[in-house]
Design brief:
By secondary structure, the protein is mostly beta strands. About 5% of the residues lie in helices and about 40% in strands. It is an enzyme of class 1 (oxidoreductase).
Length: about 120
């Protein structure tokens, strides 16, 4: 899913946070791709309702597909598996759990008044 939304009540130039979608736009155990400052970011909502944000680029395939990955857990760690070659990434740290030398960027994400906001540092 890709979410395109204009005119959200965000002022990223003053707060550092960008509203990207409504919380209800995100389905549990699925991701969505959002565009913030020219970056594709994958935003995920877990079954428990927690939010995570990572880069959308799969470093193994070179494709922008992580938002379409399989959300799950490894142990107690929330994860996403690439839909291309199935490498598993921590949603908390961005580390590839199959190859710790590889990571994807993670971004702060929060819920504010029903809107999901991402901060690109």
């Amino acid at each position: 899913m890709t979410i395109l939304r204009e005119n959200l009540d965000a002022a990223p130039e003053t707060t550092g946070w960008t509203a990207v979608c409504a919380y209800t736009d995100l389905l549990p155990e699925q991701g969505a791709c959002v565009l913030v400052d020219g970056r594709q970011i994958a935003v995920f909502r877990t079954f428990d309702g927690d939010l995570y944000a990572t880069g959308n680029l799969d470093p193994f395939s070179g494709a922008y597909v992580l938002s379409r990955g399989i959300v799950g857990t490894r142990g107690a760690e929330p994860t996403v598996a690439s839909p291309m070659h199935k490498q598993v990434f921590s949603l908390v740290t961005g580390e590839c759990l199959d190859d710790p030398a590889v990571t994807v960027p993670t971004y702060p994400v929060r819920l504010s008044g029903g809107a999901v906001e991402v901060r690109v540092l």
